């Protein structure tokens, strides 16, 4: 995700990263992301409304689960989601995936 975000910045996009600690959020801001959301402490939906009030144009996901579901609901019309992995569901029973 950090590489994808840096590539997006090179293309001139506004980049919002999600991470699970203050240190990780600081890291992604240090490498150039515009915003960082600590998904363990912040409400992803309302924070995305603040940082992307018109919706998300492109979403890169390698986590899946509830985070993916929340961000996909925030996609703009004709927005794109790039799904790379589903690590949050690796240990889920097959019938729940």
UniProtKB/TrEMBL annotation:
The gene is ORF21927. GO terms for biological process: prostaglandin metabolic process. Transmembrane segments: none annotated. It comes from Arion vulgaris. InterPro entries: ADH-like_C, MDR_fam, NAD(P)-bd_dom_sf. This is Alcohol dehydrogenase-like C-terminal domain-containing protein. Coiled coil: none annotated. PANTHER family: PROSTAGLANDIN REDUCTASE, PROSTAGLANDIN REDUCTASE 2. Signal peptide: none annotated. Residues 1-86 form the Alcohol dehydrogenase-like C-terminal domain. GO terms for molecular function: 15-oxoprostaglandin 13-reductase [NAD(P)+] activity.
């Amino acid at each position: 995700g950090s590489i994808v975000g840096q590539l997006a910045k090179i293309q001139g996009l506004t980049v919002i990263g999600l991470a699970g600690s203050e240190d990780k959020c600081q890291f992604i801001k240090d490498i150039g992301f515009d915003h960082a959301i600590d998904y363990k402490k912040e409400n992803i939906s309302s924070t995305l409304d603040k940082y992307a009030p018109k919706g998300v144009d492109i979403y890169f996901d390698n986590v899946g689960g509830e985070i993916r579901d929340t961000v996909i609901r925030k996609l703009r019309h004709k927005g794109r989601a790039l799904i790379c992995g589903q690590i949050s569901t690796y240990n889920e029973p097959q019938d729940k995936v």
